[in-house]
Amino acid sequence: MAWIAIVPPSLATRRSAQRTPMPATGQMSAPPFDAAVAGSPTCTLTGPIIHRRPPGRPTCSAIWRWEAADDGDARQASPGPPSGLTAEQLEQELRARGDVQQTARGWVSLLALADGAVLSHLLSAEERKAGLLAADGDLDLWARLADEGLPLAGGGMLRTRWALSPQELPRGSSSAMAGPEGGLEEFEDDTILTLRLRDGAVEVRALPEQQGDQAGEAVAERVKTVVQACAGSALGALRAFADAAGVDHAEHEEEVGSHDEPSDPGAALDDVLAELLVAQPGVLDDPMPPLGLLLTAAGLEVAHGAVMLAGAPQDPDEVAGLSTEEIRWVTLARGFLRTQEADRVSAEELGRFLTVLTLSPLVLERVADEVERDPADAALLEAARRASATPVRRRAAGRAGRRGRWVPGRG
Fold it and tell me: Which end of the chain is more exposed for a tag (fewer CB within 10 A), N or C?
């Protein structure tokens, strides 16, 4: 049978430097700018994350080699790595594979870990016609496993395609999954599909309607858990990116003679879900609405298989010359303009936005530049102008705003 090695944490590193781990237990630590987004989905996670071992899913108690037994469980096979491989070579092999996941205690089989999990996706007319399911936001975990082919329960294989140009795949997705020709024709446009992994194969079905208030409450609780995990990982990714991309960090690197490339400002969704399954096995075993829609509704952004805070920079050049804190403040201000609506925004939220804008002249300048390039909602800007009509904020805005750009308190 196929073996899975469990590499000691001292040797194990992330498969990709862009991936930001979700906390395994307890409450997520809050970065300094959390107070500015209180009440948003990026607030700290509360409540313990339960660790349990459901039947048929592997644990990570052994250190080296595992074999899959006939009952689907995992059993230790030997005290050391496979013959002929050093620990470092084994680690490199595992990092290159998409069907294993690193945990705090080593590596586990992602196929075993995700067995029983289900993800949903709203089928568009474009996807149905092309015979492709866009993965970004909804199906990234399955796209990872299908990179080299994943069996379909009804026959055939599900394989991932990666975009070489922006509009190559449906919905402009960076990846999509293709099955047998005509495999989507039985479904109507705008059907919510469920893709469940069971015994190493994917079952594709139409999502049945939820029945009763109790079912709705159960779904809402699972949605909260998953969205909080994504928001926490997005927050951690932004923190890591800002720490590495800030000019204050660059100056320190010059002093010590080192240089680290900034990580991505978003967290890879396939990794977020895999880590959530490690922390809470079974959390994805019941259907939920499409994840991408849930994250967007929660004020997060999804792009290229990653979840980000709204307003997070897509490119390091967007925040060139800013300090670590200024990168965070720019993200918060841009996120406010992208997600808030004038008829729903509260006075407290407006106040936080104006406070962030006036913390640094560079922050106000970058946000004003963006408003000129991509005008925000006029009613929201007007609400901000009215809210900034105090002497202190007018003086702060006057010092920060230049060259006739829009600034709080100006008509």
Answer: C
Tens digit of each residue's pLDDT (9 = 90 or more) over 98-157: 899 888 778 889 999 999 999 999 999 999 999 999 999 999 999 999 998 999 999 999
334 φψ region: left (φ > 0), alpha (ψ -120 to 50), beta (else): alpha
Give me the residue label for tokens 């991932």: 160
CA distances from 11 to 91, 210, 245, 300 (A): 7, 45, 27, 33
Amino acid found at 63: I
CA of residue 136 relative to chain centroid, distance: 10
The CA distance from 186 to 226, in Å, is 30
Tens of pLDDT, residue by residue over 46-103, are: 332 222 233 333 333 222 333 333 443 433 333 445 557 788 888 888 888 889 988 8
Separation in Å, CA 213 to CA 136, 210, 217, 218: 30, 9, 6, 9
Run of H or E including 101: strand 100-103
